[in-house]
Specification:
With 208 residues, this protein is of the alpha/beta class. It has three helices and eight strands; from the N terminus they run H-E-E-H-E-E-E-E-H-E-E. The chain has a four-stranded mixed sheet, with helices on one face. Strand 4 (88-101) and strand 5 (104-116) form a beta hairpin.
């Protein structure tokens, strides 16, 4: 049987538990995009800048693991692959911030990819930028900043591929490398269908 003191402690324990929010769940494993189809570029090499974009007051992006800037670089390293023989692609981070305010978190990510000739002339570019935020009690939960960065990176990955295919479609190879780095053979052409006379009542497929 519980004594009076134990009964009186129950409300305090319940309040303490209620004041400790659960951490925001994060997908297991490190951040990565190698499970996605790579984006093959018709260039001889890809340079991914290591420059850190300037921060702003309240920016905690550099304290996360990975940092906001490194998360963008991981996307570039995992998604982009050079399959050409000339020219160069240059990937740079334009923005990588996770700004913490009173009961708020805002993530701002941006990147730019330029294609230049062997002489250094710019031949084309693509830019992508996303923002995502959370307010109120959710912003104060443990690991809220890490979870917000993961969700913003999902948005940036989609937006980056869209802008790349829109603005640099002439520089994207139609052939995707195999897992061992070799180039896959072109797939078979479409199967043609030829209608026979009605009395045959059969259909013949013609392979290329």
């Amino acid at each position: 049987m519980l004594d009076r003191r134990s009964v009186m402690l129950f409300p305090l324990l319940a309040a303490a538990c209620a004041g400790t929010p659960e951490p925001v769940p994060i997908p297991p494993g490190p951040l990565g995009y190698k499970h996605l189809t790579p984006l093959p570029l018709n260039v001889a090499g890809i340079d991914i800048a290591e420059d850190q974009p300037p921060g702003v007051p309240g920016d905690i992006g550099a304290r996360l693991s990975p940092s906001a800037a490194e998360a963008v670089r991981i996307m570039a390293r995992d998604r982009l692959i050079a399959v050409g023989t000339t020219g160069q692609a240059r990937f740079a981070i334009s923005q990588a911030q996770v700004i913490q305010g009173p009961s708020s978190l805002n993530c701002l990510l941006g990147c730019r990819l330029e294609v230049v000739s062997s002489l250094g002339s710019r031949l084309g570019f693509a830019e992508a930028a996303v923002t995502r935020g959370v307010n109120g009690p959710e912003a104060n939960r443990p690991r809220a900043a890490d979870a917000l960065l993961r969700r913003a990176m999902e948005d940036l990955n989609v937006e980056f591929e869209f802008q790349l295919r829109r603005a640099l479609r002439d520089w994207i190879s139609a052939t995707v490398p195999n897992a061992d780095g070799g180039m896959a053979a072109p797939g078979p052409g479409p199967i043609g269908v030829e209608d026979l006379p009605a009395e045959g009542a059969r259909r013949r497929e013609t392979l290329p």
